[in-house]
Amino acid sequence: MSAPPPPEICANCGAAIPPRARACPACGADERTGWRETSVYDALDLPGAADEGDEPPAPRARRRPGVRWYWAVIACVLAAGLILGAVALW
């Protein structure tokens, strides 16, 4: 029983395989690991360009530079705590 002939293109890495090759010259897939007609990654159902549609992505909201209000409140509370602590020690 002879080994099955290799596919024209490696399903593992996509490299071209010579007609009488015993292994893929790029990734090493061979008849022992099993020549596949499809890649092991074909069934992962990852989103592709066809899944994204024709619409461009919505622009992201721009954040205004500066200090957020809650950081200003926290700074005031900490400053007040330091002042009251210094007055208590005085």
In short:
The chain has 90 residues and is mainly alpha-helical.
**What fraction of residues sit in β-strands?**
under 5%
Largest sheet: none
Low-pLDDT stretches are none
Q: State the secondary-structure class.
A: mainly alpha
How many DSSP H or I helices? 2
What spatial form do the alpha-carbon principal axes imply? elongated
Structure write-up:
The chain is mostly helical and 90 residues long. Helix content is 28%, strand content 0%. It is built from two helices and no strands. The mean pLDDT is 77.
Protein traits:
mainly alpha; 90 residues
What is the element layout, followed by pairings?
Blueprint: H1 49-52, H2 69-89
